[in-house]
Recover the amino acids of this structure.
């Protein structure tokens, strides 16, 4: 056991005291892990748009003070009672959703939506006792997504930790614990394009580019990128995108533009924007008879999807996905292996590096649209 096991650890964390205000590096106290919990030392974390969304407190119950962060890599420091499949020194990726391995979803080959540990954006405490493991001067600091990786040490439920190959570089594979796997899995696990088929990707942010990477790995012959921002087109070529469509350039619906380009429609489409109009276009642009559209983006709560039922009756398929249909503990280690075998290229997603003391720069880069992924090194 480590020398700190069972003791409170004092360390630095970037605390969000209120919505939209710069994070403040504070000394926090991190309590030991309880039943089925693991305390880990975070080595690298990256900023995902979900962190920014909840930091801005848009459209949900704000919960502050809070330690954000959910895309990261680290090393197990100590484990709580009941934890048998992880031990101090293991290399892990914390994940915003989980796999208890006991519920109907976890026992089903078709689902990764664990009853116990699926994403909960409102919960600011741990499941074991309803308490936070973080505090400053005795006052609790809320958790985020069960991970809170903007801290040198954090406590996570064992079901939300993927044990990975210790040879994998943690400053690279940290980005696989959220957005990249979501987009990649949407293509590889759900859309499942065959070699030589055509794929349309709606939205060329990090998740959309990961979906394009999945199409590239699958051997798609044409990968059509759809985005309202033409500045993204050049970057997208690195991810296998072969053609680009900016809906603003046409006076007809983008689904019609794509149908005209592809003799009736693409074989597969993946929507990564959260825009209802993009979702409808992504579905209506696939070919009748065999086309499959996959929705990844999260819509606004009052949105509704509308299309003519004949689009379905003409043998188009509409699917949704959560976290690329990957089960965190069972499947993420194999995604890391795809990188280790050089099948999946991760480096091209990483556009910036900053030290922990400069974490607010990562927010600036994302707010300005300058970064895909900014890696935050906890050592600095």
């Amino acid at each position: 056991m480590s020398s700190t096991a069972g003791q409170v650890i004092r360390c630095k964390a970037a605390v969000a005291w209120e919505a939209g205000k710069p994070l403040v590096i504070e000394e926090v106290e991190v309590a030991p892990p309880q039943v089925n919990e693991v305390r880990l030392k975070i080595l690298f974390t990256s900023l995902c748009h979900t962190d920014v969304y909840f930091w801005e407190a848009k459209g949900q119950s704000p919960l502050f003070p809070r330690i954000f962060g959910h895309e990261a890599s680290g090393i197990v420091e100590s484990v709580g009672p009941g934890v048998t499949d992880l031990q101090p020194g293991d290399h892990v990726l914390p994940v915003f959703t989980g796999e208890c391995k006991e519920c109907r979803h976890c026992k089903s080959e078709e689902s990764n939506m664990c009853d116990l540990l699926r994403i909960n954006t409102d919960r600011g405490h741990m499941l074991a006792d309803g308490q936070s493991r973080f505090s400053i001067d005795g006052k609790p600091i809320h958790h985020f997504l069960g991970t809170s990786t903007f801290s040198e040490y954090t406590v996570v439920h064992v079901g939300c930790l993927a044990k990975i190959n210790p040879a994998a570089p943690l400053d690279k594979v940290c980005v696989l614990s959220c957005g990249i796997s979501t987009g990649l899995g949407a293509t590889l696990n759900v859309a499942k394009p065959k070699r030589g088929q055509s794929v349309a990707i709606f939205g060329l942010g990090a998740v959309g580019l990961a979906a394009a990477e999945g199409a590239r790995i699958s051997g798609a012959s044409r990968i059509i990128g759809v985005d309202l921002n033409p500045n993204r087109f050049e970057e997208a070529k690195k991810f296998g995108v072969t053609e680009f469509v900016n809906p603003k350039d046409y006076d007809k619906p983008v689904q019609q533009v794509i149908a005209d380009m592809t003799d009736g429609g693409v074989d597969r489409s993946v929507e990564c924007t959260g825009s209802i109009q993009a979702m409808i276009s992504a579905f209506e642009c696939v070919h009748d008879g065999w086309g499959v559209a996959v929705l990844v983006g999260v819509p606004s709560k009052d949105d509704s999807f509308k299309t003519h039922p004949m689009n379905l009756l003409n043998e188009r398929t509409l699917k949704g996905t959560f976290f690329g249909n990957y089960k965190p503990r069972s499947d993420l280690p194999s995604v890391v292996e795809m990188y280790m075998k050089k099948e999946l290229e991760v480096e091209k997603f990483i556009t910036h590096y900053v030290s922990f003391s400069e974490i607010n720069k990562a927010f600036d880069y994302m707010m300005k649209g300058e970064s895909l992924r900014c890696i935050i090194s906890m050592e600095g």
User: Anything to note?
Assistant: The mean pLDDT is 96. Residues 170 and 212 are 23 Å apart (CA to CA). The radius of gyration is 21 Å. The first helix runs from residue 49 to 55.
